[in-house]
Amino acid sequence: MLRKFDYEKEPVVEIVNEIILDASRRGASDVHFDPQPTEMRVRIRIDGALLDYAEIPNTIKKNLVTRIKILAGMNITESRLPQDGAIKTTLKDTDLDLRVSSLPTNEGEKIVIRLLDYSMSLAGLETLGLSQKNLNKVLTMISAPNGIILVTGATGSGKSTTVYSVLNRLNREDTNIITVEDPIEMDITGINQVQTNSEIGLNFATALRSILRQDPNIIMIGEIRDTETAKIAVRASITGHLVLSTLHTNNALNTIERLLDMEVERYLLASALTGIISQKLARRLCEKCKEKRPTSQYEKDMFKRVLGEDINEVYTAEGCDYCGNGYKGRIAIHEVLLINQEIRDAISNNVKKENLRELVYKADVTSLLKDGLEKVRDGATSFEELIKLIELDDAIEDKRYGKLDLKSALELDEITSDDDDIIEI
Questions:
Q1: Which residues have CB under 8 Å from 204's CB, separation 6+?
Q2: Is the peptide bond before 216 cis (omega within 30 degrees of 0)?
Q3: pLDDT exceeds 60 at position 407
Q4: With 0-12 CB in 10 A as exposed, 13-18 as middle and 19+ as buried, what is 153?
């Protein structure tokens, strides 16, 4: 049901405020203002999914966009170039921290507002959905005096939340922490934060060179985007600094390959890399309405092969007035790799990818698939939700049908528990 506003009587200022406030109350992460030929469509992203929210007539579209740009400190006379801005305000006793982006399209300017929520980062590492085994690995990583720790995943997978949780944990009186970010998403008392500015030549690489002369103990780089930044980050980590950063890769193995593709010297990467935290976000099942259902034969086989357990029932989404679609909130699925000496030697000696994969997943690593299945077993998320996350990454080898993604494999009625030689994960 679309939200209705009285566009004849309500001022644009009040409409904008109400949209932002309502999105915040609903737990939305983003608000999209999409220009269309006949109206501007407003959509909000809740738990990773975009939902239609309202339709704004074209007669007030320009005024609405102008109001948002004024709040965000953007140039209202420029509509041909993309712009970025920020809003920090309090509306009806609700503190809001927003990031605003505008993009010129053929129908007008598209505006996206990101609502930043620091509650998870401030709550601590223990609240991020890490299993006890993975949490212990992360605590081991961040206790190292030097080295580089990478948090990886796609856009919107919660990397920043994890990074800020680690920084809050490490933020002590005897530690000098300096960050270089674009943009600074969360202000942390006691930490020196640097905002990059490409217009004046202050990029990640330039800022990093200066940071190394500021006697830091810990350096956080918002994102490793290019070869120069990657090389400086790795060199900083082997000269006595603990470096924390993010990278857009899917898992631990891809992260190692990506850094090598960025021309980081093998011997440096082998000695510098401390650990990799890969993550994805799955929608969390609503505690009020989730119900159990029998597992299919293929699901039983999957649980048996990956977890070594017989699982006869799993929870599934039902939907109620509280959640709407059976899901409420999100939970992270992790793959945490703590680099050991065997993996360091393999990276340094340029072993084949297949051999490196075997070493990585033999190193006491809970894969994304295994961690996800554990959360399905425990009722935190559903098997259907897990399929969406892993179908592109965790292909299954079926000797009769060739490579299958998980979704395709589930549709094969022929696969049964008696086919012991079929599935190789």
A1: 180, 182, 196, 221, 222, 223, 224, 225, 226, 229
A2: no
A3: no
A4: buried
Calculated CA dihedral for residues 300, 306, 308, 314, nearest 10 degrees: -40
* Radius of gyration, CA atoms only, the chain: 24
Cα separation, 157 vs 282, in Å, equals: 9
Number of H helices, E strands in the chain: 15, 18
Tens of pLDDT, residues 33-75: 999 999 999 999 999 889 999 999 999 999 999 999 999 999 9
Tokens standing for residue 175: 């530690």
Cβ neighbors of 49 (< 8 A, separation 6 or more) are: 283
Spatial neighbors of 399 by CB under 8 A, at least 6 apart, are 421, 422, 424
- Listed residue (52, 39, 51, 54) closest to 6, CA to CA: 54
Nearest residue to 98 (alpha-carbon basis) of 163, 31, 15, 158: 31
The tokens of 24 are what? Answer: 């915040």
Q: Which two tokens stand for residue 135?
A: 């949490």
Q: Tell me how far apart the alpha carbons of residues 279 and 264 are, in angstroms, rounded to a whole number.
A: 23
The predicted structure's pLDDT at residue 2: 87
Q: Which amino acid is at 366?
A: T
